[in-house]
Amino acid sequence: MQHRPVVGIPTQTLQSIDRIPEDLPHSWVMNSRYYTAVTYVGGVPWMVPLLDDDEETLRAIYDHLDGIFLAGGVDVDPGSYGEERHDLCGRTDLARDRVELLFAKWAMEEGKPVLGVCRGMQVINVAAGGTLYQDCADQVPGAIKHDYFPGAGWARDHLAHDVVLPESTRLRRIFAEERVMVNSMHHQAIRRLGAGLVASAVSPDGLLEAVEGTSEAFLVGVQWHPEMLVETDPGTLRLFEEFIEASRQFHAARMFAAA
Predict the structure, then answer these.
(1) HEC string of the chain?
(2) Residue 161 catalytic?
(3) pTM for this model (two decimals)
(4) Annotated active-site residue in 100, 209, 212, 227
(5) How many CB atoms lie within 10 A of CB 111?
(6) The predicted structure's pLDDT at residue 60
(7) Are 119 and 100 contacting, i.e. CB atoms less than 8 angstroms apart?
(8) pLDDT confidence of 140, banded at 50, 70, 90?
(9) Catalytic residue, candidates 225, 242, 245, 251
């Protein structure tokens, strides 16, 4: 039986989510769909606590992981990329920012596989030195609608618009299509692309919808939510399978080096 790679998925502070009463006990939570999607393709998901003031413990957790999955969630705080807060920037989670940016930087330095979705793609970009639009509708002239939020009545698997996958990218090879339809639940997006990243999907209004690293290591971020499509879309299934296989190979290489 093949090794099932352990994939760390950082959590989110409960109180950072809209409409959560402030007097509930401080808690770390995350949408279960991310964990079931990783399990569906053979990974072992691991919930990562937001111990942002304890780097030693975070490093011990990180060292046990074969891959990093950065999930969707609240906005990345603009202080993380050196900008003032825009009036339309939403709620943020500073502890989550610190943990995810730390894990992303460690992984990019070491070649540990990383898959980021929605906010997770934005974290990858910020970790690489990039910046974000804090509100697409306000800051991007001609922007199409991207904020098909479930709270406004849209299904999480609603295919909102297409994206173009450039040739010679990992994502184009995985999906084997020039255009794919995606679901869309965001109001922020990449502004300046981070170092060592290339665009691997573009929306009709020109916004970057996916990025990937330029090295052989698996480093992919998509602006949409593939965890909702993994059981129905063959290209999405291949995306998750390649991430898990890369995590399995990372584990094998680490075990060989330690032998």
Answers:
(1) CCCCCEEEEECEEHHHCCCCCCCCCCCEECCHHHHHHHHHCCCEEEEECCCCCCHHHHHHHHHCCCEEEECCCCECCHHHHCCCCCCCCCCECHHHHHHHHHHHHHHHHHCCCEEEECHHHHHHHHHCCCCEECCHHHHCCCCCCCECCHHHCCCCCCCCEEEECCCCCHHHHHHCCCEEEECCECCCEECCCCCCEEEEEECCCCCEEEEEECCCCCEEEECCCHHHCCCCCHHHHHHHHHHHHHHHHHHHHHHHHHC
(2) no
(3) 0.97
(4) 227
(5) 16
(6) 98
(7) no
(8) very high
(9) 225
Through-space distance between the first and last CA atoms of the chain, rounded to whole angstroms: 20
Candidates 118, 186, 187, 212; catalytic one:
118
| Partners of residue 189 on adjacent β-strands | 133
Residue 91 has pLDDT above 90, yes or no: yes
Per-residue pLDDT of 192-237, as tens digits, reads: 999 999 999 999 999 999 999 999 999 999 999 999 999 999 999 9
Residue 258 has pLDDT above 90, yes or no: no
Q: Is 225 an annotated catalytic residue? A: yes
Biggest CA–CA distance in the chain, Å, is 56
**Which whole number is the average pLDDT over 126-132?**
98
Gap between the Cα atoms of 240 and 214, Å rounded: 19
Q: Specify whether the backbone of 237 is left (phi greater than 0), alpha (psi in -120 to 50) or beta.
A: alpha
pLDDT higher than threshold 80 for residue 242: yes
Describe the crossing of helices 119-127 and 94-110 by its angle, rounded to 10 degrees.
60
